Amino acid sequence: MSIQSRPGPTAAPPAPPGGGVLLPPTPERLQQAFDNGIWYALALWPALHIATTNSWGGPDSADKRDWFAGAVSDLYASRPDTDVEELEEFLLQVMADEFECVVEDESEVEVARGIWGLRKGLRGESGGDRLAGFRELEGRWRNRGAMKVDFRVIQNEAEDEEEEEEEWDGFGEDMDVDMTAAEEAVPRLVPALVKKERVEPVVDDDGFTKVVGKKKR
């Protein structure tokens, strides 16, 4: 896929001189606020911040982030009825395809809801100031400081493993297992971003290519 960078957020129109009354935002101004707001929402996403900082999308990762914002805007231009769940799937798909990253902490839910709420406000469906949601996102981005990231990044080695075909029949009658103790012995993993590994074909002794299954989320 050819990635063409889009510019980041543009400045808002200045207030009228002399403290005059602001006119209702024009459709062009509302679209500009939507595009800029998407960019702010994505820039505040720790998962995308990690992927961009570490160049998981290649040397043009920053350009891909800008393109990503435009792709979300284009999604709503072509499919205005896109709901939150569909937007979540879109965000995850782009992260996997363009940044070789699988997000497993469900942070895409908050990002999608933020963009959804922004669009709802700009359309006047929330009542009050249509630009309030945009200004809130803009303020969060400008005051973000050093972004704190509470995630681990792990290499996805399990993705290359063949899935087990054998069914489990349960414990034997003579086995006495303390399941509570067993569960407590397993450490709980913190949310992680999984860096996708490319699956290499496996060739057996007879020269046939073996199909390698992928573990699903």
From TrEMBL:
Keywords: rRNA processing. The keyword rRNA processing applies. Pfam families: WGG. InterPro entries: Pre-rRNA_process_TSR2. Residues 1-25 are annotated as: Disordered. The keyword Protein biosynthesis does not apply. GO terms for biological process: rRNA processing. Belongs to the TSR2 family. This is rRNA accumulation-related protein. It comes from Friedmanniomyces endolithicus. The gene is TSR2_3.
